[in-house]
């Protein structure tokens, strides 16, 4: 089939359909990466806003034991009561800077009898055993705590922990262990205590603002979609040249391309091949 008629054959229309489907998929993946970037930017904004917010009474933010708005993550809250040190737990599997460790979880009882879980910070695992060598003691008596809110973690099936430890900070699981009514949707990362303890675990630091590579990935998917059409066009052009090789105009264009290539001289790779061939003789 001479000319461009072959491009409308069932085979090439099938190729075009595949390229269109591929390009649509690339566009969808690009949009997904942009959405992921928007989520990351929203989280960065939430961290910046809530981290710098003035502390509020816990019952102003968590109006019931089972309430928590994710928009309040990192918001500092004030609690006054006492630590229930006999019920403290360790959350296992918490690496920090390449070191194995735990989070120290201590129930904090408020005046109304409700209990809020305070994560006092990170403790390094022991030198000769899995458990920490030393667990910092909590202040006794009435304490005022400022803690940053964070949603409870999901329970992971198949993961277990020995007595006195939990595999995840799943608040329903913790409530069952200590057998007390607790805030079941959020816990707090310790920011300060009054009176202060002489020894405290490693405190949580403000999350690093990082959007991630989502924007570059979004552009890459768009480029992949465009390249698919370019590759299809190149393949159509190559078949056109093969099918119309005896056409006078196409022969003239082929000769022009040949002269242009000769005028440029050999590529570096061709020159190296020629040197190697000559040396091997």
Blueprint of the fold:
Layout: H1 10-51, E1 56-57, H2 58-61, E2 76-83, E3 89-91, E4 101-110, E5 115-124, E6 143-151, E7 165-166, H3 171-178, E8 186-194, H4 214-243, H5 248-264, H6 268-279
Parallel strand pairs: 1-2, 3-7, 5-8
Antiparallel strand pairs: 2-4, 2-6, 3-4, 4-5, 6-8
Helix pairs in contact: 1-4
Entry summary:
The chain is of the alpha/beta class and 281 residues long. It contains 6 helices and 8 strands.
Principal-axes geometry comes out as: elongated
**Estimated helix fraction:** 40-55%
Number of helices: 6
Q: Note the quaternary state here.
A: single chain
What ranges have pLDDT less than 50 throughout 5 or more consecutive residues? Answer: none
**Beta-strand residue percentage:** 15-25%
- Helix vs. strand class: alpha/beta
What is the average per-residue confidence, as pLDDT, rounded to a whole number? Answer: 88
What is the makeup of the main sheet? 5 strands, mixed, barrel
Whole-number count of domains: 2
Q: What radius of gyration results from the CA coordinates?
A: 33 Å
The run of helices and strands is HEHEEEEEEHEHHH
Cα-to-Cα separation, first versus last residue: 46 Å
Strand order of the largest sheet: 2-4-5-8-6
Describe the structure.
By secondary structure, the chain is α/β, with parallel strands linked by helices. It has two domains: about 5-35 and about 215-275, no CATH class; about 75-195, no CATH class. Helices cover about 40% and strands about 20% of the residues. The protein has a five-stranded mixed beta barrel with strand order 2-4-5-8-6. Strand 1 (about 55), helix 2 (about 60) and strand 2 (about 75-85) form a beta-alpha-beta unit. The longest helix is centred in the N-terminal third of the chain and has 42 residues, at about 10-50. The protein is elongated and about 100 Å long. The two termini are about 45 Å apart. The mean pLDDT is about 90.
């Amino acid at each position: 089939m001479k000319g461009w008629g072959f491009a409308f054959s069932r085979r090439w229309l099938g190729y075009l359909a595949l390229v269109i489907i591929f390009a649509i998929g690339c566009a969808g993946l690009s949009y997904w990466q942009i959405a992921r970037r928007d989520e990351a930017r929203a989280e960065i904004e939430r961290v910046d806003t809530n981290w710098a917010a003035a502390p509020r009474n816990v019952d102003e933010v968590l109006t019931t034991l089972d309430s928590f708005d994710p928009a309040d993550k990192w918001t500092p809250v004030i609690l006054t009561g006492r630590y229930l040190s006999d019920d403290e737990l360790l959350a296992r599997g918490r690496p920090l800077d390449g070191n194995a460790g735990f989070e120290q979880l201590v129930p904090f009882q408020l005046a109304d009898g409700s209990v809020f879980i305070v994560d006092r910070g990170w403790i390094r695992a022991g030198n000769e055993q899995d458990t920490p060598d030393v667990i910092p003691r909590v202040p006794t008596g009435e304490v005022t705590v400022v803690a940053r809110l964070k949603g409870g973690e999901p329970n992971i099936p198949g993961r277990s922990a020995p007595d006195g430890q939990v595999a995840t900070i799943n608040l329903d699981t913790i409530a069952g262990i200590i057998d007390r009514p607790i805030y079941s949707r959020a816990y707090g990362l310790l920011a300060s205590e009054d009176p202060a303890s002489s020894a405290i675990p490693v405190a949580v630091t403000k999350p690093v603002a990082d959007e991630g590579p989502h924007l570059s990935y979004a552009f890459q998917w768009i480029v992949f979609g465009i390249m698919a059409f370019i590759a299809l066009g190149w393949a159509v052009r190559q078949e056109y040249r093969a099918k119309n090789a005896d056409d006078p105009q196409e022969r003239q264009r082929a000769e022009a391309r040949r002269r242009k290539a000769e005028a440029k001289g050999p590529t570096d790779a061709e020159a190296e091949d020629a040197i190697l061939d000559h040396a091997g003789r």
